[in-house]
Specification:
It is a single chain. The chain has about 240 residues and is of the alpha/beta class. The chain has one domain: Aldolase class I (TIM Barrel, Alpha-Beta Barrel). Helices cover about 50% and strands about 15% of the residues. It has eleven helices and eight strands. Helix 6 links the parallel strand 5 and strand 6. The structure holds pyridoxine-5'-phosphate (PXP).
Length: about 240
């Protein structure tokens, strides 16, 4: 399984003081040095963490894969088409949310998303849709032309009882197998940490996980290099 690190929260800390540091681009370089497979950041409309300058600099700097997470608004689409990341991950975006709260409502904006995906494909940019682990939604995602789905693992991560965790894990497992069976690659992310990642690794049907908060916050105590290495070793089964 591959590991991409989401560096949004390095930028969150920088924006807290509107300083020049800590620089998410420097964080990305450290993550790459440790050996991660890619870097993710989310350019939000309200620019609460990642700034336009970051995405252009990341494009110029990264040697691995650059996954630009974004809402499908015209302003951000235009920036993404200029940046040409290696992958675009479309997510729902609400100004009042603390973080992305769930998968895209694909059914209500099918035509718009289909058009948006083809605009990225014209520039040879593959597109991933962040979705709930739901067969119907995954089927429609495939129909409108996406290349990947990223399964929302937040509900699984927030589950507290053993039974609930098992149910949510089974949903992710079945959704991943279904998506693979119709030719979609499957990423997963949201709320994954050093503990709840273990059953996800065992599923063997996830191409890549995207992890931010748990790694960036652990870095405060053990340093970024060690925090990333610990997660990378888990993901790679080392
Ligand atoms: N994947 C998506 C689509 C997300 O929106 C986020 C949060 O920005 C993540 C993965 C990473 O989640 P976390 O920061 O909880 O690891």
């Amino acid at each position: 399984m591959k590991l991409s690190i989401n560096i949004d929260h390095v930028a969150t800390l920088r924006q807290q003081r509107r300083e020049k540091y800590p620089d998410p681009v420097s964080a990305a370089i450290i993550c790459e040095k440790v050996g991660v497979d890619g870097i993710v950041c989310h350019l939000r409309e309200d620019r609460r963490h990642i700034q336009d300058r970051d995405v252009f600099l990341l494009r110029d700097t990264l040697k691995t894969k650059f996954d630009l997470e974004m809402g499908a608004s015209e302003e951000i689409i235009k920036i993404a088409l200029q940046v040409v990341p290696d992958l675009v991950t479309l997510v729902p975006e609400k100004r009042e949310e603390l973080t992305t709260e769930g998968g895209l409502n694909i059914l209500s904006q099918k035509d718009y998303l289909k058009k948006t995906i083809s605009r990225f494909h014209e520039k040879n940019i593959p597109v991933s849709l962040f979705v709930e682990p739901d067969k119907n939604v995954i089927e429609v995602s495939k129909l409108i032309g996406c290349d990947f789905v990223e399964l929302h693992t937040g509900v699984y991560a927030n589950a507290t009882t053993k039974e609930e965790i098992e149910i949510k894990l089974k949903q992710i497992s079945e959704a991943a197998q279904f998506a693979n069976s119709i030719g979609l690659k499957v990423n997963a992310g949201h709320g994954l940490d050093y503990t709840n990642i273990l059953p996800i690794i065992k599923l063997n049907s996830i191409y890549e996980v995207s992890i931010g908060y748990s790694v960036i916050t652990r870095a405060l105590f053990v340093g970024l290099e060690k925090a990333v290495r610990e997660m990378l070793n888990l993901v790679k089964g080392i």
